[in-house]
Every structure is written in structure tokens, then in C-alpha cells.
Design brief:
By secondary structure, the chain is an alpha/beta fold. Helices cover 42% and strands 15% of the residues. It has eight helices and seven strands, in the order βαβαβαβαβαβαααβ.
């Protein structure tokens, strides 16, 4: 019997790549996002019989509730919740940041993940099986200039994932936090307000991770035996590493 994965933010990047990989391995898909046209294209590509799409914004609690209630019966036994929806906005210092951008990151990266997790978890616990896979970031562990609120939201994802593991001990439910480093997708285009040229410079002269790289890691964690829990995976491209401590000289 085919298993079912629910993927938030499935219209691009990691979410889309994961949808394509899981579909190719015979999984049924519940794909969510805000862009109906992209979801419909993906549904048509992967096969409508095995793909249910739901157009809603994870930041809206009522929309989340309504969308979950409308999942067809044949898709309701959700084996994996992939909390992929997330974004970064801006790269300026905290003292110059746009509060609206901060709120959008908190609402998407934290609240959206909470709404989805709280809604799906009881269904998994009732069945005694399931896997919550969260998309974190190396920014949740390692700071960088301009990472302020984005990094803080991903630190939340990291700690929330750990605490979920403790709450779910004995239920059979698995929890994994996947923490990518430099990866080329629409991430930087969104971060820089649609400025493709500025986004391209982030990856200039590098060989970053790709959405397929991350999708394969997601699939690997999901396909371990039921008694094996991958707590977290921190992954960077070879071209990326940690920097030295920054020291400001003669500044005081």
C-alpha cells in the first residue's frame, strides 16, 4: 500500500524536488502552497490520481484547519509531514531591518510550522506511526551578518524538533531536522525581493547544494527502518565552511 507525504511549500525548491522524488518512488502526495498554477502543473506532471493539492497560506491558522479537513479520505493516512515552507527576507543589520519582514519570517518559519505540526500530529499518534521532517538551516546554529531573525527562526525549528522527540517518545513517531547550508533555489531571489541579479551573486564562483541534493537527504531519512530516528542532518556544500571569529579593532 502506497504511503502518503504532505509537503508544505511544494511549489519550488526543496519542496518541489522532494515531491518529484517521492512520487517516483510510488508515494502519494499532498502538496500545499500559495501558487495554484504551480501546484496544478506539478499535479499534472506527477499524476492527478496520486496527488492532492491544497492552496493555502501556512501563516493563516484558519486556512490550515480548513485545508486539512478537506483532504480526501484516500489521502488522510499521512505518514510524513514535511514542514518545508519557509523564507528569508532581507540581509541588513538588525538596527536597519524592516519589522514587517521580521514578522513575515516569524509567521511563516515558526507559526506556520506550529500550525501544521499541531494539526497533523494527533492523526499520526492515533495510528502509532508517522514522521515529522522539518527544514531548518545551518543559520539556526551558526550566526552570520544579516541573519538576525531568519537565523533565530531556524534556531526555533531546531529546538522545537528536539522537544518534539521528547514529547513523542513511546509513540512510534519519528522527528528529523534537516539543516542545509548554501543551496541554490528561489531562496535568495525571495530574500532580495525578486532581484535575480543580486541573488545570483550569492552563488557566484561556488558549487552550492541543489534542491535535488536536499530531496535525496529527505528521502534517505524517511526510508530508514522504523526503529531508526535521524535526529538531525547538517549539510553544507564542500565550498562552504565556518568562518573565523570576527574582531573589530580600534572601534571603541
Amino acid at each position: 500500500m502506497a504511503k502518503t507525504i504532505l509537503i508544505t511549500g511544494a511549489t519550488s525548491g526543496f519542496g518541489k524536488a522532494a515531491a518529484e522524488l517521492f512520487s517516483s518512488n510510488g508515494w502519494k502526495l499532498i502538496l500545499t502552497g500559495r501558487r495554484r498554477d504551480r501546484l496544478q502543473e506539478l499535479q499534472e506532471k506527477l499524476g492527478a490520481a496520486n496527488v492532492h493539492i491544497a492552496v493555502f497560506d501556512v501563516r493563516d491558522r484558519q486556512q490550515v484547519e480548513a485545508a486539512i479537513q478537506e483532504i480526501p479520505r484516500e489521502f488522510q493516512d499521512i505518514d510524513i509531514l514535511l514542514n518545508n515552507a519557509g523564507l528569508a527576507l532581507g540581509l541588513g543589520p538588525a538596527q536597519e531591518a524592516d519589522l514587517d519582514e521580521w514578522e513575515t519570517m516569524v509567521d511563516t518559519n515558526i507559526k506556520g510550522l506550529l500550525y501544521m505540526t499541531r494539526r497533523i500530529l494527533p492523526m499520526m499518534v492515533a495510528r502509532g506511526t508517522g514522521h515529522v521532517i522539518n527544514l531548518g538551516s545551518v543559520a539556526g546554529s551558526w550566526p552570520y551578518p544579516g541573519g538576525n531573525t531568519y537565523g533565530a527562526t531556524k534556531a526555533f525549528v531546531q529546538q522545537f524538533s528536539r522537544n518534539l522527540r521528547t514529547d513523542l517518545q513511546g509513540t512510534g513517531i519519528r522527528v528529523t531536522n534537516i539543516e542545509p547550508g548554501l543551496a541554490e533555489s528561489e531562496f535568495s531571489i525571495v530574500r532580495f525581493g525578486g532581484d535575480a541579479e543580486k541573488a545570483a551573486k550569492v552563488y557566484e564562483g561556488t558549487r552550492p547544494l541543489t534542491p535535488v541534493d536536499i530531496a535525496e537527504i529527505i528521502y534517505w531519512t524517511a526510508s530508514r527502518p522504523a526503529h531508526v530516528n535521524i535526529n538531525c542532518v547538517e549539510v553544507m556544500p564542500v565550498c562552504q565552511s565556518w568562518g573565523n571569529f570576527s574582531i573589530s579593532r580600534d572601534s571603541f
